[in-house]
UniProtKB/TrEMBL annotation:
Species name: Vallicoccus soli
One family name in Pfam for this protein: SHMT
E.C. number(s) listed in UniProt: 2.1.2.1
Source organism superkingdom: Bacteria
TM ranges: none
Gene: glyA
Domain Serine hydroxymethyltransferase-like: residue ranges: 4-380
Record keyword Oxidoreductase present: no
Protein name: Serine hydroxymethyltransferase
Length: 412
């Protein structure tokens, strides 16, 4: 870092400001986490310099013997951690991993049955502004109005009527466990591929805190930077029969040279996930999310579906009279970072939204427990309902005191 400060104080300043922002507030975005110094070291390494198009032992460039080792180690760790036949560590992001799965298994125009975006699905699950909804035909399924859970009967009816080529399970804002066995049955009944987009919850799977989709899915795609606590990036797991198709879809179809520093950082994160301390972490993430959801419910903020089984809770703010956008802004002013989020059947526009999404991956990494979540819930409630700047300042002060007891990236 000294070199960056000497060479480019302007950007060094940005890096330090971001570190202070992370340290000084509550980071409750469900898709974010604090990577370890070891992961950051791999990311900031000279492996970034190497062109390595292709796969270990089959590269288009010379000089790849060293970086090959990083990718081979990473692949072996991924296979061990998830019990998968095959792993591809090269996708630059979660969206790239999903793109590769579509490219490997489908033809343009094919139908894809996936969760509707306003009910928690991701852009890559059939949005009109994304490749998935432009080059493929989306068939969205929803959650039930009464209990806000996936309606597996609706999924099956849609599958039988519309005959999709692929069915996707997984979402960005669904707080409950997904019945992968049921999805597999439905996919088999209609002869569809079954893909799981595990971006949000794969870290919980890695830590044994929730059931794994790997035994059920043809392909499992995910990001590596959420609960999993690795670098920004993507990964694909699949059965042996699909290994070649997936590899070809990632490179050369969708991407060029892999980011070898990121591949190495993924390997570091996977090793961390294999340690017993990570299992404890993953279970604590879930316990904290439950405590946070309960705490918010006690403050009059309703958790969608009544609670959570995972690392995130989706909170309906309707009873408070505050919109998701206003809540996000008020929390930001009190040093609480979270995001507005549509709730199922939301009457508001997506940029306003009736809800917020909160997640516990980062606060758990900094060592907070269920008792702290009670305090976090009360701070969120005070910030959301704050009518004046003095209250916001008070909450910001309390946030500062709480995070000082559990520092992220502690100072040496
Ligand atoms: N899939 C799901 C379910 C996600 O939540 C996300 C990102 O939040 C992605 C895919 C895309 O990941 P990325 O932003 O790395 O492209």
């Amino acid at each position: 870092f000294g070199a960056l400060q000497a060479e480019d104080p302007e950007i060094a300043g940005v890096v330090l400001d971001e570190l202070e922002r992370l340290r000084g507030g509550l980071q409750l975005i469900a898709s974010e986490n604090f990577t370890s110094p070891a992961v950051l070291a791999a990311l900031g390494s000279t492996l970034s310099n190497k062109y390595a198009e292709g796969y270990p032992g089959r590269r288009y460039y010379g000089g790849c013997g060293v970086v090959d080792q990083a990718e081979e180690i990473g692949i072996a760790r991924a296979k061990e951690l998830f019990g998968a036949d095959h792993a591809n560590l090269q996708p630059h992001s979660g969206a790239s991993a999903n793109f590769a799965a579509y490219a490997a298994l489908l033809q343009p125009g094919d139908k894809v049955l996936a969760m509707s975006l306003p009910h928690g699905g991701h852009l890559t699950h059939g949005s009109k502004v994304n490749f998935s909804g432009t080059w493929f035909e989306p068939v969205p399924y929803t959650v039930r109005k009464d209990d806000e859970l996936i309606d597996y009967d609706e999924v099956r009816d849609l599958a039988l009527q519309r005959r999709p080529k692929m069915i996707i399970a997984g979402a960005t804002a669904y707080p409950r466990l997904i019945d992968f066995a049921r999805f597999r049955e439905i996919a088999d009944e209609v002869g569809a591929w079954f893909m799981v987009d595990a971006a949000h919850f794969i870290g919980l799977v890695a830590g044994g805190a929730i059931p794994s989709p790997v035994p059920y899915a043809d392909v499992v795609c995910f990001t590596t930077h959420k609960v999993l606590r690795g670098p920004r990036g993507g990964m694909v797991l699949c059965r042996e029969e699909l290994a070649k198709r997936i590899d070809k879809a990632v490179f050369p179809f969708a991407q060029g040279g892999p980011l070898m520093h990121a591949v190495a950082a993924k390997a570091v994160a996977l090793r961390e996930c294999l340690q017993p301390s990570y299992r404890e972490y993953a279970h604590q993430v879930v316990a904290n999310a439950k405590a946070l959801a309960d705490g918010l419910a006690a403050e009059g903020m309703r958790p969608v579906s009544g609670g959570t089984d995972t690392h995130l809770a989706l909170i309906d703010l309707t009873a408070t009279g505050v919109t998701g956008a206003d809540a996000e802004r008020r929390c930001d002013a009190a040093r609480i970072t979270l995001n507005k989020n549509a709730i199922p059947y939301d009457p508001q526009k997506p940029m306003v939204a009736s809800g917020i999404r909160v997640g516990t991956p980062a606060v758990t990494t900094q060592g907070m427990g269920e008792g702290d979540m009670k305090e976090v819930a009360s701070l969120i409630a005070r910030a959301v309902k704050a009518e004046d700047e003095a209250t916001t300042r008070e909450v910001a002060g309390a946030v500062g005191a709480l995070v000082a007891r559990h520092p992220a990236y502690p100072r040496p």
